[in-house]
Amino acid sequence: MTLARYIGGRLLQLIPVLFLVSVGVFLLVQIIPGDPVAIMLGVSPDSAGFNKDQYDTLRHELGFDQPLYERYLSWAGRIVHGDFGVSLKSRRPVADLLFERYPATIYLTIVALLVSLAIAVPIGVFAAVRQNTIFDYLGMTFSLVGLAMPGFWLALLLILLFSLKLGWFPAIGYAAPLAQPVDFLKHVAMPAIVLGTSFAAQLARYLRAETIEQLHQDYVRSARAWGLPPRTVIFKHAVRNSLISVVTVAGLHTARLLGGTPIVESIFGWPGVASLLLDSIYARDYPTVQASVLILALTYVTLNLVVDVVYHLLDPRIRLA
Amino acid sequence: MVQPLLEVKDLTTEFVSPRGIVKAVDNLSFTIAPGETLGIVGESGSGKSATALSLLRLIAPPGRISAGTLLFEGEDLLRKSEREMRDVRGKSIAMVFQQVMTALDPVHRVGEQIMDVLRVHLRMSPQQARERAIEILGAVRMPSPEQVMRRFPHELSGGMRQRAMIAIALACRPKLLIADEITTALDVTVQAQILDLLDDIRREFNLAMLFISHDLAVIARVCDRIGVMYAGRMVEYTDKYRLFETNMHPYTNALLEAVPRRKEDELRPIAGSVPELSSLPSGCSFHPRCSRMEPSCTREAPQLREWEPDHWAACHFPRQSVPVAQPA
Which residues pair with A63 in a beta bridge? Predict the structure, then answer.
């Protein structure tokens, strides 16, 4: 089976997944308490300034008087055509909002991933090679601290130190990476460190354990017996093989990075999908909530596909099936 | 007498375990002349593989070589730095392992693994290394070497993988090849092919070999001299003919008895089992299983002694032509 056919097949499998996600997203919003029409009007049905006619008109306009399945079908139909509806809060097309916000989340996730790799790979490999030495203990202590530290707390500490005391990085805000690369880096640094740290901690532990296991494999012994230099033995044979399972974990955790972004995006005023989602939930802005969750889910499943493909490229024994 | 290629003197390799220090190899001495094949035979756990790994200084912690000298071409390998040792491994002394399924890295192509060795030791260009790798695969009679270069290890059969391992071992034309149970994991027919190959290669490359096996039939087929190991020690050491015809040590005798020869012969397994190295019996380690055991055997460990010219045995009561005085 060729890679192209495999990817094609996997993309087809996305359809039922996305269907189920969309049903879930749609229903979830329907069952949370709170009446969006009333919120939009700013009055509740039992309060004094309530105007029944105005309420019913808006209700009809928004389609809330239709049966559930019809609302789902028309909603899903529009989404298939790229129409995510109009935000109840800002009255703008949701597609436009996503288009603005989505790249910021992706940039942040990528930078966070790079940060965590830059921390985790040296620590993990070095700790494995120097197992049970002071380096190993220091590295693993760091990773334990990184794991235990809540993201929001680290975020506040970083803001205190680097923004308020030292003034190195702006506490909040965003700049486009292509238009203003330097500004982008300044703005992305702290949120990426917060997101990347706990991930780095887990990755370092995983990489260490995996590399230690690989170092005991027969082919690593063979490589030593062939007189290959330690660099080759460690990286080309041990680490290279440990990557196969590390990539799986890294892929799943990258997806979790996406899940971790709402808090970080909110703290640092990062205009991403995750903070959009959070704001929309507060505002009972259903169309935006649905679209945001949907696009995050789509990102998640796409990431899984990428992981599976990379997995294959790393391990020739795995057949694409 | 010819200058030996390898002279091992009093090699001791220990492992630190929770139950104390365990000697996997205990005071082992032997020599290998250029072009000669020494077989080491023994049951599992007798220290054969630890001996092989010790020669290349590949014993990993918690194990270590605690005593002895390993003279290779007159130079003590134990005095070499790790850097110098890397030049010996794969270049002067090469090793082939038993684990045909796992001894090659699964994620790299066979060709690349051969070429890496050539590039590191002989500083070959990729092009030179490729040509030499194809040549050496041909020399180990690998079918269609050029295709095999592009294969991953899991795409080859066990026999082909072992040929590939032998090819890597021979790539830099070593003087000594250590073969650790290399036929054990193979089918009998493939085993015979690999043994034939080794015969040819030995002649072609004038290769000395340390051939480790638990299988006496295989050892007899390949080796010039044979050492018998038991519980980390050499218990008998002589040439192949003496070992099979006038062996002295009761353990050697028992090993030979345990080999099935004709269909109607009953197998005679050795009673008991190999002792734990962490709790060896007192005196001679073999005494609980020995048919010739005397009280003195439980008190004093016999030293390896040359009872007859070029025939060494570590036993208080060796079977031999000349009567021997009891040890004091």
Answer: none
Mutate to test the interface with B, among A136, A216, A222 (most CBs of B within 10 A): A222
Burial B44-70 (b: 16+ CB within 10 A, else e): ebbbbbbbbbbbbbbbeeebebeebeb
pLDDT score of B201 more than 50: yes
The conformation of residue B281, written as its DSSP 8-state character, comes to: P
- pLDDT, tens digit, for every residue of A67-82? 888 888 888 888 888 8
For A50, the domain range is: 3-80
Query: How many A×B Cβ pairs under 8 Å?
Result: 75
Query: Is A86 within a domain?
Result: no
Q: Is the pLDDT of residue B328 over 50?
A: no
Number of structural domains in chain B: 1
Of A80, A102, A125, which one is at a domain's C-terminal end?
Answer: A80
Name the nearest CA neighbour of A257 among A194, A204, A302: A194
Closest CB to B58 among A224, A236, A244: A224
Q: Interface pTM (ipTM) of the complex? A: 0.86
Closest CB to B168: pick one of A221, A226, A315.
A226
What residue in B sits closest to A218 (Cα-Cα)? B103
Cβ A226–B116 below 8 Å, yes or no?
A: yes
Residue B270 lies in a domain: yes
Across chain A, mean pLDDT equals 85
B285-306 pLDDT, tens digit per residue, is 888 888 888 888 888 888 888 8
Which pair of tokens denotes residue A219?
């082919």
> Which structure tokens are listed for A236?
């080309």
**Confidence check: pLDDT of B37 > 60:** yes
Residue B161 touches partner A, C-beta closer than 8 Å:
no
Is B103–A314 a contact, with Cβ atoms under 8 angstroms apart? no
**Partner residue facing B89 (CB), from A226, A232, A317:** A226
